[in-house]
Amino acid sequence: MTTDLTITRPDDMHLHLRDGDMLKAVTPHTSADFGRAIIMPNLVPPVVHTEQARAYRERIMAAVPAGHAFEPMMTLYLTESTEADDVIAGAKDGLIKAVKLYPAGATTNSSSGVRDVSKVMPVLEKMADAGLPLLVHGEVTNAEIDIFDREKVFIETVLDPLRQALPELRVVMEHITTKDGADYAAAGNENLAATITTHHLIINRNHILVGGIKPHYYCLPVAKREEHRLALRAAAVSGDPRFFLGTDSAPHTTSAKESACGCAGIYSSINTMSCLAQVFEEEGALDKLEAFASLNGAAFYGIQPNAQKMRLTKQDEPVSYPGTVVVGDETVTVFDPGYPLHWKVENLG
Ligand SMILES: NC(=O)N[C@@H](CC(=O)O)C(=O)O
Ligand SMILES: [Zn+2]
Ligand SMILES: [Zn+2]
């Protein structure tokens, strides 16, 4: 039984750092354990222009503690008035690593998102030419579509037609939550990949709803049935290069989540690597953790794996991590996997 594992320092290919006090509070948790992260642009107002991304990157770097080797990989928020020239110039400059498509109204801070994909085709065509990835929050927003079906319907009615119209476009299906998503990604070519979150490997929809409503397990896309969680686990531990870690760690204040209309998002940056080691151990696949967390994402984005290493050691005593993080007068509640974690994380040089 493996109890000691050293892997390449991981990357988080889907992360929300927010801004202001929240940014200052949460960034050190990511920069401690991750070499790079794809930074989501859904601030208020969203990061839509290259110059906004440049300024945001500087605010992030100012929040990284001395001694942490961390590189934020910036993205732009696609709107129906995005100018292709700005996006491509940002990408050529090396600052912009991807563009994020939020269907308008699908998730937190997505009201400026895209209503009609045909309106952004000129931008997507230029991105395809430049090899710049499109990251998709893959849910339709039609009121008549059940929220548990929104990912599957998005794949059928938006994603697949888009990929057929523009096969050269590189696409990441962000935070997949269904067997349908995993199967579609696995059937794709080298232009398609999918991120999987930590929490969707651990919780199913019962965790949200059985025994009282649990707002800290509510995120979008919402966790699905157990069969979907098992399909996501199989994809994550498969070693298939199309699947890699994007925690979707998405901090909201505890009060904003424990509300009559609670926000969507789960904060997992602090304990993600301990959680993942436990998941991969349960699956008898600790040898695949490095591919999922440290190698596959870098390969998709065309960057070298991090030079540093992370050591994971299984100990008898549960590891301790804070249940909440203080942000100003508020707190952020940390993801509770529902059981003690036994894998200790050490960042090596
Ligand atoms: N995942 C979430 O539930 N929330 C994210 C937005 C997103 O990634 O869809 C957030 O910004 O809070
Ligand atoms: Zn999303
Ligand atoms: Zn997200």
TrEMBL record:
Top EC class, one word: hydrolase
Keyword Metal-binding: yes
Residues forming the catalytic site: D248
Cofactor(s) in the UniProt record: Zn(2+)
EC number: 3.5.2.3
UniProt binding sites for Zn(2+) 2: K100, H137, H175
Residues where Zn(2+) 1 binds: H14, H16, K100, D248
Domain Amidohydrolase-related residue range list: 12-304
Pfam families (alphabetical): Amidohydro_1
Keyword presence, rRNA-binding: no
CC cofactor note: Binds 2 Zn(2+) ions per subunit.
Location of N6-carboxylysine modifications: K100
Keywords from the named record: Hydrolase, Metal-binding, Pyrimidine biosynthesis, Zinc
Protein name (Swiss-Prot/TrEMBL): Dihydroorotase
Species classification: Bacteria, Pseudomonadati, Pseudomonadota, Alphaproteobacteria, Hyphomicrobiales
